[in-house]
């Protein structure tokens, strides 16, 4: 009796996934049309991001050239950690740009209109407007990771584990953005909390070993930057145990589960003010 | 009689701008959480550079790029203070005023538009500076870094002069960039993002000391106004730039103030001619 129910569930899940994918494509297409209507602005923002990443890489290059290593990591390893950070940052910006448009919805009470629609409200406010500027940057970053990563001569298993941990890092970032949205409902503050998360995450631009205790523990366990960024890079460098990989993935799943629970709690506190 | 009238009009003007100052200060406190969170972000940005250099200079008596541990960590701590003075500004909002057509309201008021924004900037700097002092003290107590205390009065005086010039330079740069909204109102923020946030952050020395860069790049940078915003005042404080070299730097930066001022006036006048008060 149990088997058909499970089959039905899988069927429903696949159907729902297809449904949400269709909505996401539709919303992303709309976001793309908005960007294309301001092509010059798109070019400037794209250029600004490229300049910012290039500047930071050149800064790392010049520093490591003068010091030989940073916290025991050589130039390629330092750049790989930075690129891993950049990938997670860009991918989460691409997927979750809509988070920055959440505050007006809450303040005006227009979030009511999201709640009554037959779509998950969390999905709508989290993924309702993909950022095409960040999307354009993803392929060059992947190429750069491949280029620098190849210099470390990783095995096939290491590459698979790196990709797995990268996905896990994205899962943790998703959890953080859900927490930011929840905080938005509770305090009407979104932009700065999102930026604070990004600022904290940006500490992951450098190897976690750079930071002194207790900040290092804070960044490893509370804001799991080590798990999000340094750990995947260490897999590619071949300096990590399989047990850490399992532990990291477990942490990612638990963290995402915990953040969705907070979101459900925050929804109960939504007052529909101003509407 | 004439002198009395002139004095009275000066006092009136002062009182006008002191009201602007008070209102601007109150305005900053309207969104208190916003302000506190913004300050918190500044602390995070310091963490990254502080720990990076702390880790690099963990080896005793190490000297890299001409810095020892004391001087590099003083540079990082001075960053908080200097950035609060130079980069705390409201002038970026001029872009929005032009784009929304709100500039018309301001032009009708009996206020000098530049002095109005300069006063708002001073209010913003006062508030940010007081917060920066508290943050610096707290971080100092937590991180306990070695600190270089400059005791040469001439260096301190040159540091203050260079800081005042940096404030003027930043104000002028912001006004010039904001003026782009006269021609491309919807692009103002994008242009600010690339110039005042991305390029200025890197080329002013607010992320790292500029002498980390190769000599040719560093030499070219020393002739740009960006060099004089953050890097130059801190180097003067540290005594790494002193005497004739410091005076030469102050002269170059002053020349930049004059050039940017003339440029700003010219762009502003041209901008006002094409201004159509969109949205009004």
UniProtKB/TrEMBL annotation, chain A:
<keyword id="KW-0812">Transmembrane</keyword>
<protein>
    <recommendedName>
        <fullName>ABC transporter permease</fullName>
    </recommendedName>
</protein>
<dbReference type="InterPro" id="IPR010390">
    <property type="entry name" value="ABC-2_transporter-like"/>
</dbReference>
<dbReference type="Pfam" id="PF06182">
    <property type="entry name" value="ABC2_membrane_6"/>
</dbReference>
<feature type="transmembrane region" description="Helical">
    <location>
        <begin position="40"/>
        <end position="63"/>
    </location>
</feature>
<feature type="transmembrane region" description="Helical">
    <location>
        <begin position="125"/>
        <end position="148"/>
    </location>
</feature>
<feature type="transmembrane region" description="Helical">
    <location>
        <begin position="160"/>
        <end position="188"/>
    </location>
</feature>
<keyword id="KW-0472">Membrane</keyword>
<feature type="transmembrane region" description="Helical">
    <location>
        <begin position="239"/>
        <end position="259"/>
    </location>
</feature>
<feature type="transmembrane region" description="Helical">
    <location>
        <begin position="75"/>
        <end position="96"/>
    </location>
</feature>
<keyword id="KW-1133">Transmembrane helix</keyword>
UniProtKB/TrEMBL annotation, chain B:
<feature type="transmembrane region" description="Helical">
    <location>
        <begin position="155"/>
        <end position="177"/>
    </location>
</feature>
<protein>
    <recommendedName>
        <fullName>ABC-2 type transporter domain-containing protein</fullName>
    </recommendedName>
</protein>
<dbReference type="InterPro" id="IPR010390">
    <property type="entry name" value="ABC-2_transporter-like"/>
</dbReference>
<feature type="transmembrane region" description="Helical">
    <location>
        <begin position="217"/>
        <end position="234"/>
    </location>
</feature>
<keyword id="KW-0812">Transmembrane</keyword>
<feature type="transmembrane region" description="Helical">
    <location>
        <begin position="72"/>
        <end position="89"/>
    </location>
</feature>
<dbReference type="Pfam" id="PF06182">
    <property type="entry name" value="ABC2_membrane_6"/>
</dbReference>
<keyword id="KW-1133">Transmembrane helix</keyword>
<feature type="transmembrane region" description="Helical">
    <location>
        <begin position="126"/>
        <end position="143"/>
    </location>
</feature>
<keyword id="KW-0472">Membrane</keyword>
<feature type="transmembrane region" description="Helical">
    <location>
        <begin position="246"/>
        <end position="264"/>
    </location>
</feature>
<feature type="transmembrane region" description="Helical">
    <location>
        <begin position="189"/>
        <end position="210"/>
    </location>
</feature>
<feature type="transmembrane region" description="Helical">
    <location>
        <begin position="43"/>
        <end position="60"/>
    </location>
</feature>
